[in-house]
Structures are given as C-alpha cells and as structure tokens.
Amino acid sequence: MKQQALKLTVLAALAAAAHAASAQELVVKIGHVAATSGGAAHLGKDNENGVRMALDELNAKGLTIGGKKAKFELLAEDDAGDPKQGTAAAQKLVDAKVNGVVGHLQSGTSIPASKVYSDAGIPQIAPSVTNPKYTAQGFKTTFRMVANDAQLGGTLGRYAVQQLKAKTVVVIDDRTAYGQGVAAEFEKAAKAAGANIAKHEFTSDKATDFTAILTSVKAAKPDVVFFGGMDAVAGPMLRQMKQLGVKAKLMGGDGVCSVELPKLSAGSVADDSVVCASAGGVEAAQRGAMEKFKADYKKRFGTDVQIYAPYTYDAAMVMAEAMVKAGSAEPSKYLPVLAGISYKGITGPVAFDSKGDIKNGALTLYTYRAGERTELGVVR
C-alpha cells in the first residue's frame, strides 16, 4: 500500500510539474499566406520557407516573451493568387487567433486581405507586395518590407530611357493589381524621361499565347517592351518574342525577376536581353549575412532562394522582436512597438514610416547572362 501511495504521489508531482511547465510556455501562432499552387507556386513556397526558417531559429533559441518561453507555430495557407481565396485564408487565420501574419505574396490578394486583418487588429507584414494601394488604405496593422511600385516602376522607366537609350516603348500588363500598378508607374516615368509609348497592350495572368499582341508589338518596332506581371507569363512571352523576331529588350518588375525565368522561357533569354528589378536590395555591409542565409536555406530545403525568402525571414524576426520588446504576443500590445521598430535584418535596416511602408527601401537591378540572373546594382 505504501509503495502504491508513493507511486501516486510521484505521478501527481510529475503531472503538476508538467502543468507548471506548460503554463510557462507561450504558444505564438504566426500565419503565412501565399500562392503555393498555380503559376506563382515556386515564389509562394519560397516565401513560406523563409518564415519557416525564422520560426525554427526562434524556437531553437528558446526566446522568452513576458517571462514565458515562446513556442512559435506556423499556420500556412494557400491563396492561389486569387483575391477571394486570399480573403478566405485571412479569415481562417483570424478565426485561428493568430498573433501575426507574414504575407500575402501578391498585391491582388494582400489588399483585400489587409482589411480582414485590420478589422481583427492583427498585424500583417507583407514581404513582397509592391502596389502603393496596400499601405494607402490607412490601416494601422499594415506593414511592407520592400519599396513600392511607384519607386520600382519609376526607377525602371528612367533606366529604360537614360541607360538603355530607349526611344520607343511598348507596355503590356496582365490586368492584376500588381501588373497594372507597376506598368502604370513605368509608363509614367518613361514618358516623363522622353520615351514615346507606342502601345499599351493587355493580357491575363493565365495567358500562354501572345501571338496577336506580339505581332502588333513587332509592328511598332520598340526598343523596350515592359511587362507588368509574373515570370510564369513572362517566360512564354519571351519565347514567342524570339520566335516572332521581336528584337526589343524585355523589362519587368520583381514578378518577372526570378532565377526561374530562363527555364520558364525554355532558354529564350539571351545575354542582356532582359532588365528587371526586385524590390529590396542588399548593399556591401549586408552581403555576408545574406550569403550565409542563402547557404543555410539551400542546405535546409535543397533549392536556391527565389526572391523574397530573406524578406519573409526578416518579417517574422521583426514581429518576434516587437513581441519581446512589448513583453507580450497580444496583437494590441506589440502593434505600437512594431510600428516604431528599428531592427537590423539580413536584408538591411527595417523601420516603417507612418503608413507602414519600409523607410528608404532598396531596389536591385538585374539582367541575365549565360542563363543566370546577374546583378547590375542596388539603388535607393
């Protein structure tokens, strides 16, 4: 009997210890949404992997928030690049009571989803959204990690005229919030710099045949064709430009500017035939940290970083830093700290202006040589 009583006492003590330990553990749910199916799936998965790396690292460090050991959990959703699916995914994360959201991948899904998060008071940091409307809505929960289309499209428009000496330009966009936004900013800047905009054509983000558009483009004899859209469409477009003998350089924003573009174009990217820019850029001081991240990423996932994984990684780290400083993972408690944060990330300094835009956002200009994306320089 004594032995049995002792056994029960030990079990009770162990249960009490386990309960005390769990009471001291704080579960922090971080949501991530991107297109992890469809044409942009490789970019969406890249973004998701960046958050996964950050949360694994935070858990390995044993971070404490308000005196409790934090256990970070990733709740990942696929919006397939569709605005309706985007708002449904956002509502799902709100219902799951996430502490914060990194995402979405695209402007077209992030803009409507941002209202869902705003209504729930949940901070959202978009790692790759560039449409200016995203932060122009006045939501206090909305933040952006990269320069917007006004900066990106404007820089490319000026570059086309001043550096590439383009006189005649054709603009094509895919009618998405992102594609239209970056194309409009490019057109405005190129025109102001002195280019003649011969045509503005439209396609869709699902199109694969551009024969009619490119026949019309060829007749205009442009020096530059600017495409507002994603690499999954730009690849076939480049292949058909080559088949039809369109000699112009193709320019595009960050949606075009991936390491996958030569493969998506079936090898139709000639040296220096494409000039694109990605929002974000790493200057000399950050190169070491970025190279380490890329090596760790490849070791973990067996593939190269596409574009924005470092920005989702930094976004998750910034969110965690705000929670630590606030001593709470409650959105209402750490949101004011996040708004005023100053953080040294692997992508560079992270601080937000009153709208939630990144302060002094960088852009990186690229071309392609020998089938590889090649950096031309970082501009701010």
How is this structure best described in words?
With 380 residues, the chain is of the alpha/beta class. It has two domains: 198 residues, Response regulator (Rossmann fold, 3-Layer(aba) Sandwich), CATH 3.40.50.2300; 130 residues, Rossmann fold. 46% of the residues lie in helices and 22% in strands. The protein contains 13 helices and 15 strands. It is elongated, with a radius of gyration of 23 Å. About 2% of the residues have low confidence.
List the helices and strands and how they pair.
Elements: H1 2-23, E1 25-34, H2 41-61, E2 64-65, E3 68-78, H3 83-95, E4 100-103, H4 107-120, E5 124-126, H5 133-136, E6 142-144, H6 149-162, E7 168-173, H7 177-192, E8 196-202, H8 211-220, E9 224-228, H9 231-244, E10 249-252, H10 261-264, E11 274-279, H11 287-301, H12 309-326, H13 331-339, E12 343-345, E13 348-350, E14 363-369, E15 372-379
Parallel strand pairs: 1-3, 1-4, 4-5, 5-6, 7-8, 7-9, 9-10, 10-11
Antiparallel strand pairs: 2-3, 11-14, 12-13, 14-15
Helix pairs in contact: 2-12, 3-4, 6-7, 8-9, 12-13
